[in-house]
Amino acid sequence: MELLFLYILNDKRNIKSCSYNFSSEYFFSYDERSRTFSMEHREGLPTHWFGNNILNITAIVGKNGTGKTNLLDCIIKSLCGGGGGWGIFRYKNKLYTNVPAILTDITFTFDVERFYRWGSPLNSEFEEHIDDTFVTYYSSSIDRSLSNRHSHYHKFSDISNSYILRQPINQLTESPDYARMSDVDIMQTNDMFRLLLFFIYSHEQQQTIFDLIRLPDYFELKLLYFSDLKPQHPTYQALTQSLHGKGFKARLRWFILTQIFLSRHQIPESWNDQTSFDDIVSYLNRGEDYRTNIFNVLDQLYDNGDIQYHEPQLTGLRKGFHELKFNIRIGAITQEVLNALYSYYNFISPGPYASFGTMAYNNVSNAQVVINLGISSGERAIYTLIARLMGVIFSVQGEIHHAAINKITQGNWFNGKTIIILLDEPDLQLHPEWQQKFIRLVLSLLYTFFPEIKFQIILTTHSPILLSDIPKTNVIFIDKRSDGTSQVCNELNFKETFAANIHTLYNNGFFLNGVPIGEFAKQKIESIHRRIEFGDIDSYTLNDIYRIGEPIIRNILLQLYDSKRNALPNEKRKMLLKEELDKLESTE
Questions:
Q1: Which of 25, 70, 103, 297 has the fewest CB atoms within 10 Å of its CB?
Q2: DSSP track, 187-241
């Protein structure tokens, strides 16, 4: 299924009576007076313009507050829930709509299939439904609550920060300030598991796109606990009495044992001073022998030289804070390693603040397992998007992880079907170099790993760099009416966007009005212009003019400067010319 058009009568925010066309092949419109939908054929992009498995890409452009995110919200509602707007979509070479047939006063001037019911066209609870399409939504913003918070949506997955960070208030627990792990930290750790799995998957399948995106050589793993209490259990006492020396393996055993015995997990009654360390790690793996345990895996990596570890400096540590951190070479990560990490992470499973209780009230540990890549916020943003997007598609595709054999199998049952990807300003936090690579990177990922799945991508953006990868026919330009509501602008009024330079895109007017420079710089240029106009020029004026990087503006001011200088009294003109000559000679 491919979404072609959406008409929104009133989203009760800032969209009223707006038509949005997502296809370069068709142009749909709706007449409110006659309550009629019409269609025109257009000369669209060639088939497979964006790639063999990409149905289409649409960019939505507009200034803040023009309703870009609201539009994505309405798309989700119309496809996966209820309301949102009247849509037209292509399915099995036929046109369909979610305008129910019972609304006989709404007519179409073209052939279209209509359901006899309201609601999501993807709802398989009805006999009439579309079962080959899935929708996913991503946004790095955390200031928005998508409407599905209180709704039941069909064939939909929300992988946005705001959704993942949402926690019921009754899950929040008391814990010391320094022991708290934020929801963001937990979210990023989970994203790291997804990314490591994606890296392993790519490496094992010998399919890689890391000529476009490269991971660091190592990632950091931390084991933490927060308590000055020493567990009094006889098993703990017996197994730790000889662990007083330094060294990675001794400290690793100490941390594993301490985290286990300070956690709120029920310790088996059979454990005593004769219980072995192997019995402990078997308990971590629920007694399932095929599961690798965290100690043996890290022990082997250390012996192979794949772990970087330095003895900790004990100065400045906070009371009750204990940390074991080391770096693991990413190239050494296998399914076996990831299984062990994940099993242990789940055993020492964090709540919203990664705490098992409080020191103040329960005298128990707040244990944590933290994974960090040691990357910038911009790099993390792109890695996070990739990890979540690939994770949800793997899931839809039918990926099954077999812990017993440390392998992934793929059912491929979603082949030939469609995933609609909605991206809300994915360029946020991305360096311009990443923005240049973004479209190519996403398309390479989707084709490399899922060549038999069809994808439609709809994204909002503020980036002229990203937009230069999208032809104008595939861009929806949005602006505000005088009453503050959203309106769709005629694309014919704008210059071509595909392969256009940034200056041209800025001059289109949907990013900035006027010259695309900062307001402070603009104010300074206007001040210089006024000074020259009034003849208030001196030796510093020329310096100010040459400080301007934009050549057209600089040359205009130089011409004005020359004309005004020539009109000055001879003595002042001679002084300025002498100063200019001195500057020229000093730069030779």
A1: 103
A2: HHHHHHHHHHHHHHHHHHTT---TTT----SEEEEEEEEE-------HHHHHHHT
Instruction: Kindly report, residue by residue over 33-78, the tens digit of the pLDDT.
Output: 999 999 999 888 888 999 999 999 999 998 888 889 999 999 999 9
> What is the torsional sign of CA 460, 466, 472, 474?
negative
Q: Using alpha carbons only, what angle is made at residue 131 by residues 127 and 136, rounded to the nearest 5 degrees?
A: 135
For residues 427 and 437, is the Cβ–Cβ distance under 8 A? no
The two tokens of residue 142 are: 């955390």
* Residue 574 to residues 327, 452, 489, 568, Cα–Cα distance (Å): 68, 76, 55, 9
In what side-by-side order are the strands of the sheet with 94-97? 16-21, 2-10, 86-91, 94-97, 113-114
Q: What is the pTM of this model?
A: 0.82
Joined tokens for residue 277: 């360390």
**H/E element, 29:** strand 26-31
Residue 260 · residue 364 · CB < 8 Å: no
Distances (CA, A) of 299 to 248, 303, 324: 9, 6, 14
Q: Which of 483, 477, 373, 392 lies closest to 20, judged by CA?
A: 477
Q: Which residue has the tokens 């007017």?
A: 509
Q: Is 212 exposed, middle or buried (0-12, 13-18, 19+ CB in 10 A)?
A: middle
pLDDT of residue 165: 77
Task: Give the three-state DSSP class for 2.
Answer: strand
Distance CA 450, CA 567 (A): 71
Token reading at 67: 């309703």
| End-to-end Cα separation, the chain, in angstroms | 67
